[in-house]
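# step 3/5: fold
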Amino acid sequence: MNKNIFLFLTLVLLALSFTVISGCGKYMAQYSAPVIIERYPALGAGGVGSGEALWVKFSKSMDTSGFSISEIGSKIKFPIDMTATATFYPGITPEMTWSDDDTKLTMTNFFFIANPGNKVHFQTSKEAFQDINGQFVTENADLLNYTLAGLFVAERYPTIEETITNIPTTIVATFDNPVSTGTFLAGTSESHTAGMWIPASPSITWSNSDRTVSIENISWEASPGNVVEITYEAMDIYGNIVTSGQLFKYNVSP
């Protein structure tokens, strides 16, 4: 065999080898099991609100056909260290949505009956989640594993340190857990520099399954730059007690 023929055959073999290896790589990528690559909350996270949105992101597009809220209980396991209990509230419907590329599953309006430090721990059950090629996520893989916080304000208007006009205004705060409304008390702190609120007994209403409190149509005896700071005492329906929480802190302008 002359040198030119030998070199030609060597190049052909190398090309064939590359094609086979490349094809095998694509085959393995297509038919390897999907894994969870991101999640919220992160594994081991602490102080997470009871009703925060939860999500997991998979390494591949998943088979989402027929996937519904009613199925989630059969697709996950609750290890023995799961100390929180999922619950549902009237008027608040749990939702599960997939991203456009079917790699990210988001779960909203899921709430937990729990005290601070209780744990949410979900793992995959057998044949729980499969990708579009029929490959399953490994059984007992951690979906979520985190600990819960107690009662706190998750959203508010006005936001902390915001400046608003001193006209009759409705201020609104949403807690992470439903509140035992009979325990709720609101008052001003020592750093509050505005005068009394008008009317002296503002209207307070609850909504959103007793998670959202609205103090309606109040204004203040205040000069420009005065600070409104309202604290609260409350207990949620699980018995978590707050005795000196900050409800609002904002500035008053003319």
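# step 4/5: annotate
The chain is about 15% helix and 40% strand.
# step 5/5: archive (pending)
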